[in-house]
Amino acid sequence: MQNYYPPIQVGNFKQGEHPAVEFAARLKKEGIQALLEPIGGFQDPAEMERILEEGSCDLFGAARAFMADYDYGKKMQEGRGEDIVPCLECNKCHGTLLEKNPDPWITMCSVNPIHGIRFDLPKLVQQTTPKKVAVIGGGAAGMRAAIECAKRGHHVVLFEKSGVLGGQLLHADYFDFKWPVKNYKDWMIRQLGQEKVEVRLNTAPSAGKIEKEGFDTVIAATGALPVLPRSIEGLKDENGKALYPTTWDTWGKEKELGHHVVIIGGSETGMETAIYLLRAGHKVTMLTRQDKLAHDASRLHYITMSFVKQDDATHAHEAAEWERYDEFTGITKATTLKVSGNTAYYKDADGNMQEITGDDIVICGGTKGLEEDALAFSEAAPQFFAIGDCMPGAGNIQRCTRQAYARASMI
Ligand SMILES: Cc1cc2nc3c(=O)[nH]c(=O)nc-3n(C[C@H](O)[C@H](O)[C@H](O)COP(=O)(O)OP(=O)(O)OC[C@H]3O[C@@H](n4cnc5c(N)ncnc54)[C@H](O)[C@@H]3O)c2cc1C
User: Which pTM value belongs to this model?
Assistant: First the structure.
């Protein structure tokens, strides 16, 4: 036998891609007499059935699947694969062990709100009688709140101002490497149907309209929108109109951009957009004033966005995902001061002015929560909550899920 190391990769697998299965299949082919149990990212019962039928292995090891959904085994036994809550593979269940100040007692889950707080639940969950609940906004927070309220027996109406549910999660419809997020979004949309939530698309109700309909509770989940940094000159015209697209504007519109895209701002979500554009054949230059690309990614997420290159079985070395692309350049410690036409003017690490011209400039300048839009509903019903990215603080799916569950438990 020669090299039997599986090709080690830590991130960015395509859906259904399992190097450990290939490894097991190779061992099987060699006639190894042992039970073979690949591990890593197994959750989909149909996929596992197929792999077993192909004879590539004998059983599967799974852990995160059972944390994402405590009823995983039950649903699998009942043949309800479509109801299993999809795991995001965000690894928050591993806690903060790779962070600077690790706490061995913290574990949480982006999609299972009670993971890590199960023993506090009797204090949190209140008894209830059926109520009429309005949820404003159909993103990660609003959809999950609507589902949790409906499960508690309430009549729920979900208002979404656009023609489609998902909010920021819609990025995963375009970024093929975010398929776990897309699966979770699609699961929520299915659950809204199953729980008989009344969804009103293309509807942004006024507070008066909500008041007139006589809801007992309003949950506002109006989310956030990208902003253009004020510190950069030239991003708006004299009427305050944006002159440049944000990274969000590029989703599904990558063909409208010229070949060389200069992205100003290098956060994790900006980097994901960069990878999306690179995969679509663009050349991308990213400017960030930070000393590291995707500086805001957690250590664990940073690893998941990276991969292990393997020159041979024993000499593996780590490299960031973006290093795979010849057409990517990341310039750190670059403070952009001005944009004009398709040129960005920035101060480099040594304080010298530099410029870079692309076919298009795209801005990744962070987001602003739509808090005022949410608070506009604060007196539209006897009970009011605001959840998700509309409220201050860094937003993520885990926070949306827990806030949705916590508020629903109080109704
Ligand atoms: C590119 C990108 C990648 C990301 N990746 C991850 C990730 O991998 N993991 C993670 O945990 N988080 C990730 N996030 C963050 C995460 O997506 C957000 O924190 C979360 O989706 C926010 O959900 P939300 O419901 O609070 O708001 P939003 O998603 O902003 O949804 C708000 C919704 O409310 C609607 N709305 C607004 N006002 C009204 C109104 N007046 N009436 C009716 N409807 C209204 C909007 O149209 C929208 O659909 C990512 C974000 C981006 C942009």
Answer: 0.92
The C-alpha atoms of residue 69 and residue 120 are separated, in whole angstroms, by: 18
Write out the DSSP string of 136-205.
Answer: E--SHHHHHHHHHHHHTT-EEEEE-SSSSS-GGGGGGGT-GGGHHHHHHHHHHHHHHHHTT-EEETT---
Is the pLDDT higher at 407 or at 107?
Answer: 407
Residues 6 or more apart in contact with residue 249 via CB below 8 angstroms: 362
**Tokens 């192909």 belong to which residue?**
54
Q: Which atom of ligand 1 is nearest to the CA of 247?
A: 1
Residue 411 and residue 217 in contact, taking contact as beta carbons nearer than 8 Å: yes
pLDDT, residue 66, reads: 95
Expressed in percent and rounded to 5, the helix, strand and coil fractions of the chain are: 35, 20, 45
Sign (positive or negative) of CA dihedral 255, 256, 261, 267: negative
Say whether 82 sits in a helix, a strand or coil: helix
Neighbours of 156 (CB within 10 A): 29
- What are the chain's domains? 19-62 (no CATH), 118-225+368-409 (3.40.50.720), 228-365 (3.50.50.60)
Distance, CA of 148 to CA of 158 (rounded, Å): 12
Q: Pick from 23, 6, 18, 12: which is nearest to 43 by CA?
A: 18
Name every protein residue with a CB atom under 6 angstroms from any ligand 1 atom. Answer: 90, 110, 136-142, 159-162, 167-169, 171, 181, 204, 221-224, 269, 272, 370, 373, 388-389, 395-398, 400
Query: What's the average model confidence in pLDDT over 298-325?
Result: 54
57 Cβ contact list (under 8 Å, min separation 6): 21, 24, 25, 28, 36, 37, 38, 51
